[in-house]
Design a protein that fits this description.
Blueprint lengths: L3 E2 L8 E8 L4 E8 L4 E6 L5 E3 L15 E5 L8 H11 L4 E3 L2 E3 L4 E3 L14 H10 L17 E2 L9 E2 L2 E8 L2 E10 L3 E3 L6 E3 L12 H8 L10 E10 L3 H18 E2 L9 E10 L3 H21 L5 H5 L4
Parallel strand pairs: 6-9, 16-18
Antiparallel strand pairs: 1-12, 2-3, 3-6, 4-18, 5-9, 7-8, 10-11, 12-13, 13-16, 14-15, 14-17
């Protein structure tokens, strides 16, 4: 084995902060970048709630990310970016236009309105607080930040779904470092990509065991309804020196991690989005970075569900 596991905070070039409301079961995770970087994006789901995503496509001019927000609240949660911009502007972080500073803050949101409170969502203050918390560089997994209200396995609604959250994983090969941060709020079931074993997702009515979501979906046939209430969103961060088009390729390669771990994935009811951001100057082949990115995102998905388990009584108290 030529790689070693490292904390994601050792990738360098950014810090992680969180803010959440445990009564409403929603929150924001902020990746606040220390300086110039390059970013790409891949959107494979049919229902993304996103802000500034076009800036990181191959058709746009290169733009540096000041902070990336991953949050709950569906499209309502995009208000968190206003607070993030205020925090960053106060510190003169962003794109310089003469005496004006414009922070570049892309954001992607999950739909968590069906788990906690549908009337309380991430707002500007929560976005500000998440950025402020980045001084603590807190890469804690589970029910925190944007992962606070995440769930999986939602074919039959929340009563047969299971808790998920936010996860992290990072690897180092020589001087190259690649990490992943992901919020798993998928429609589908979650599988361990190494064993093929289901580890989270659709439960039976008694919540005593798993059902196979794909089998149940096939049985419904044209009666099945997949609402736009699901999304897996995440970011690959690396110290490799890559161009924007190469980072879009890394993000696109990383999509296979979703296919390895989530079934079904990329449906019309999912807003699956992956950012890829380069913060360093290590020379590396784009294919090596992309291959490592698949592995770290797969492991981060497993971390998100394994670190977020809740007892049935605690889970049900948020949905009944």
């Amino acid at each position: 084995m030529n790689y070693s596991k490292i904390p994601i905070t050792e990738v360098g070039g950014f810090k992680i902060g969180n803010a959440q409301d445990y009564n409403a079961m929603t929150g924001v995770t902020a990746l606040v970048f220390d300086g110039e970087n390059t970013a790409g994006i891949d959107i494979s789901g049919g229902g993304p709630a996103a802000r500034e995503s076009y800036l990181f496509t191959p058709l746009a001019a290169k733009q540096s990310v000041t902070a990336l927000l991953l949050s709950g609240g569906s499209a309502f949660g995009l208000a968190a970016s206003d607070g993030a911009m205020r925090y960053l502007e106060e510190r003169k972080k962003g794109y310089q236009l003469g005496s004006i500073v414009v922070p570049i803050v892309p954001q992607s949101c999950i739909f968590d309105l069906g788990f906690g409170s549908a009337n309380i969502r991430p707002d500007a203050q929560m976005g500000y607080n998440a950025c402020a918390d980045s001084v603590n560089n807190n890469a804690k997994s589970g029910n925190i930040g944007g992962g606070t209200g995440a769930t999986v396995g939602k074919l039959f609604g929340m009563k047969q779904a299971q808790k998920s959250g936010i996860g992290y994983y990072a690897l180092q090969v020589g001087n190259l470092k690649v990490g992943a941060c992901v919020i798993v709020n998928a429609f589908g079931d979650i599988y361990d990509y190494k064993t093929g074993k289901k580890v989270a997702g659709l439960l039976n009515e008694e919540r005593s065991g798993f059902l196979d979501l794909e089998d149940e979906l096939y049985a419904l046939q044209n009666k099945a309804r997949i609402e736009k209430t699901n999304t897996t969103i995440g970011a690959i961060v690396t110290n490799a020196h890559l161009a924007q088009a190469e980072l879009c390729k890394v993000a696109k390669m990383t999509r296979s991690a979703l296919g390895q771990c989530i079934r079904p994935v990329g449906t019309t009811g999912d807003g699956d989005t992956i950012y890829a951001i380069s913060t360093g100057n290590v020379q590396s082949d784009v294919n090596i970075v992309g291959t490592l990115a698949v592995k770290v995102l797969s492991e981060a998905i497993l971390d998100a569900v394994s670190s977020s388990a809740m007892e049935n009584s605690e889970y049900l108290s948020h949905i009944l």
